[in-house]
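From the methods appendix. Each design record in this collection lists the tokenized structure first, followed by the designed amino acid sequence. Records were kept in a plain field format so they could be parsed without special tools. The example shown here is representative of the layout used throughout.

RECORD:
FOLD TOKENS (239 positions):
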């Protein structure tokens, strides 16, 4: 059991790019910009990969269709978007533009969602006696709907009790995604309780997502309000 736990923790560290002691680990210099793309009235855009480290980096970029079912994100391999180049080597200080190209003209009435998986590949000649941590980025790509007016997320908020846990549940009946962050609960007396200071997550069109509430937030009940950033804009939502 301890071995399995260690392996899970080691894998998580590699995927998130967390670095251990400088004496034990080789830090990566792979950087990605921007961290999301929205294609509207165009079929192509791009991201920049750069190497800010002191060693050459090999990287791979893949595309996945992104959906949400049963309150979870689901990624499936997709050929709807072409990545060019899909594999590359970056020397220290080098930048490379990665083109993201949609095949055909969008005809969707609801936003389509994808994720770019940018993976640093382990070096073929790692230095001895040092662990090597590689970075993984998962970048959202949104294809805006055509001829349907301004894309909009239409959200319904609630609190659900499942077993011993309380969940914040959000449904999106609009035609565009909602990125949720900086969520604070406000009760009837105006008292405030922070749910999360950073990113809570995304709710895609036609989807419902849940996030478990910490024990200190267990007294959050319907009838209060939530102050939340939705796609970068502050809003107040009724529970």
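DESIGN:
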């Amino acid at each position: 059991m301890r071995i399995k736990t260690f392996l899970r923790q080691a894998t998580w560290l590699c995927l998130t790019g967390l670095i251990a002691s400088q004496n034990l680990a080789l830090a990566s210099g792979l950087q990605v910009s921007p961290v999301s793309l929205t294609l509207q009235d165009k079929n192509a855009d791009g991201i920049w990969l750069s190497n800010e480290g002191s060693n050459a980096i090999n990287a791979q970029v893949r595309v996945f269709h992104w959906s949400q079912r049963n309150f979870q994100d689901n990624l499936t391999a997709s050929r709807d978007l072409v990545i060019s180049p899909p594999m590359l080597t970056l020397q220290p200080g080098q930048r490379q533009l990665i083109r993201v190209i949609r095949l055909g003209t969008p005809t969707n009435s609801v936003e389509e969602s994808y994720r770019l998986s940018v993976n640093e590949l382990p070096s073929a000649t790692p230095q001895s006696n040092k662990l090597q941590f590689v970075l993984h980025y998962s970048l959202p790509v949104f294809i805006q709907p055509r001829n349907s007016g301004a894309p909009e997320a239409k959200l319904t908020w609630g609190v659900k009790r499942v077993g011993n846990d309380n969940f914040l549940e959000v449904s999106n009946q609009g035609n565009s995604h909602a990125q949720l962050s900086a969520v604070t609960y406000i009760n009837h007396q105006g008292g405030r309780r922070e749910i999360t200071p950073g990113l809570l997550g995304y709710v895609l069109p036609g989807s419902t997502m849940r996030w478990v509430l910490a024990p200190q937030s267990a007294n959050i009940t319907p009838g209060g309000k939530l102050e939340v950033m939705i796609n970068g804009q502050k809003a107040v939502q009724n529970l």
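APPENDIX NOTE: Confidence is low (pLDDT under 50) at residues 1-27.
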